[in-house]
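I am still getting used to backbone structure tokens and would like to learn alongside you. Please make up or recall a protein chain and show it to me in full. Would you write everything just below, so we can both look at the same thing?
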Amino acid sequence: MEMNLGLSERVETLRDRVAEIICKDIMPMEDEYHAEVAQGDRWTFTDRQMEIMNALKNKVRAEGLWNFWLTGSDKGFGLTTVEYAYMAEELGKSPLAAEVFNCSAPDTGNMEVFERYGTEEMKARWLAPLLAGRIRSAYVMTEPDVASSDATNLSLTCVRDGDEYILNGEKWWASGAGDPRCAVYIVMVKTGGDDAPKHKRHSMIVVDAATPGIEKLRPMEIYGHDDAPHGHFHIRFTNVRVPAENLLLGEERGFEIAQGRLGPGRIHHCMRAIGQAEAALELMCKRSLSRTAFGKKSGASWC
């Protein structure tokens, strides 16, 4: 079967408008926005940051440019995964762009989970405000004490106790958990014993971020940067009680949900990374052409 990966006229026009907004409206605000992180508490948003972000969001929402990522749903924009890939490439060129268009990870993946696997109550409580951009979320999977690259090793326990589950263990690299707007976690937990098939030992559960027993131990750093106020946190769960109805689809179905979540998510990430690389190359070329070394422009022979 032949697959058309090209741009339709409709999507090309849309992509060009997104690129124009990113270049003319979003990129000029990046330096001022990020300079505000050093003002006071790094894990809150200053009034100026919120003013910048809300103004940009209001602009794109007024044009109907919102929730591009949600495919196969009447709640989304109406793009296919291939069509959205072109938007994601543009979004990757600015660290603010994804949030401006409500296409940020990990919210996009979490919203997919709620849309495809959540109950009506979950959709009303969590999906609706996420789609509206009023709250943020975190996906809580990786653990410090096991090789999480093999997700069958995950060991945070989730034990049924009447009408609740009790969670105990630690997670880290929980992206977005530092954001003061982060209201909900989707957590990969171990519900089955070691005698169960490897891919039937785990489940996913929805956890209100304000639940007692959740402790944020520290923000993780990458080359000394903590990515405040978004953050990627090391979290401890100590006897965290969660209503049993918060378990998604039922026990043993964690990997099924993970595959549904991470499939499109990997495309989103890859295309944003391509856009980021393109932006980095452009900056490098501009810099090389602006520098003089040993009597000539340093990049004159190759850029």
Notes: The beta strands are 136-140, 157-161, 164-175, 182-190, 202-208, 214-219, 232-243, 292-293, 296-297. The helical segments are 9-26, 30-35, 47-62, 81-91, 97-100, 107-117, 120-131, 254-290.
